[in-house]
Write a structure and sequence with these properties.
The chain has one domain. The protein contains 5 helices and 2 strands; from the N terminus they run H-H-H-H-E-E-H. It is globular, with a radius of gyration of 21 Å.
């Protein structure tokens, strides 16, 4: 009887360990997907800003098309990725497309390209696109038109949140790592 109880206790302890490992793995993949998705949204926003330029040279169109292809690949493949390592392996493609668009924009505007993928985008959610206010004008962050209007109406929008270490953090405070956000220390 004692042996049976010991076996059942061991099985129970093993099941608890496997469950905890599975939860940790699911949390890690969710966090990695969230970080990659916000970078993909920043890529799309920057790409659309470049594509809307009336002075877009024909050779820059190739950069726009490539970046939109990377964005489409990210959106379609991220939900299918089953490990944080798979998401991390996609990171260099996202970073490369962000750098390509930043370089093309810098070539047209003459303004050096920032390393931070969120520079020049709404501080509430980079998917919103270019801001119409600077930080401090209508709040602590640069705001797109819709976020500025909400702020002025007395309903300040909350920044896009990601999960990190099991809790919510604003998208711009998450740990992206040096591939996705070179301005952050590893």
């Amino acid at each position: 009887m004692l042996i049976l109880i010991a076996v059942l206790g061991g099985a129970w302890a093993t099941a608890l360990g496997v469950g905890a490992r599975g939860r940790r793995t699911r949390r890690e993949i969710t966090e990695a997907r969230g970080r990659a998705r916000v970078c993909a949204d920043a890529l799309r926003a920057h790409t659309m800003e470049l594509a809307r330029r009336p002075d877009l040279p024909p050779d820059a169109r190739r950069h726009v098309e490539h970046a939109l292809g990377v964005y489409a690949d990210a959106i379609s493949s991220l939900p299918e990725m089953r490990s944080a390592e798979e998401v991390a392996a996609f990171g260099p493609r996202l970073r490369g497309a962000l750098d390509e668009i930043a370089g093309a924009t810098a070539a047209i505007t003459g303004v050096p390209a920032p390393a931070d993928p969120f520079t020049g985008l709404c501080g509430i959610d980079p998917a919103h696109g270019a801001p119409v206010t600077a930080p401090g004008e209508a709040g602590p962050r640069a705001l797109c038109e819709a976020c500025r209007d909400a702020f002025q109406a007395g309903d300040p929008p909350a920044p896009r949140m990601l999960f990190e270490d099991g809790g919510p953090v604003p998208f711009d405070a998450a740990r992206y790592g040096p591939v996705l956000r070179p301005d952050q220390a590893p």
